[in-house]
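Entry 14. Structure prediction run on the chain below.
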Amino acid sequence: MEQILIVEDEPKIADLLQKYLQNANYRTHWLNSGLGVGDWARQTPPSLILLDLMLPGKDGLEVCKEIRQFSLLPIIMLTARVEEIDRLLGLELGADDYICKPFSPREVVARVKAVLRRGQIMPSDTPSMAIHSSPKTALLALDRDRLLVRAGQQEITLTLVEFELLATLQQQPGRIFGRDQLMNKVYTDNRIVSDRTIDSHIKKLRKKLSEILPDQELIHSVYSVGYKFEV
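Output returned:
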């Protein structure tokens, strides 16, 4: 049975989430502080973490950053702060999804199932696979299991969103993808995000790629249309 770790400092919310998740046949564990979450996740890795943004001891973004240093387990952030900067910062640190308060516990269960299904598309015991669609894309090797990109002896780690963007663009070099197309590829749960969100991820992705290929520009902007991958 899959286990969900709930990190939430409001007992009523935590109790409600536990009841609904248990009714959906998940095991649950509750922590009411950001302190100690990383150690608990190391010792007893859950299937997914529901992580509140505003926590005593250590806030949710710091907890997410700590966990991403040693694990890619799914994280859904719970937040009452809906400003775009919080959403972008959370995604850059590796959060897989957001749920804004107030929320329906049924929606939380649905989001949990959706994120876990995405993780099952390529299970962890599947051999790592480098994507080489053509000689044009052989410059990079993508390791989906570890969210790594390698160029020669250099490698970088991407967030899940950055990896999916790069994989989508690289598989069809020269093709121009509109922002809406990229959003549909990356956010398969039909959440609503702005064009600026895609632009922000592309900017971060370019910066990371420049660390391993400083003399190459791989992702090109096409004015008023979108982006394409081209060496």
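The first helix runs from residue 11 to 23.
Filed with the rest of this week's runs.
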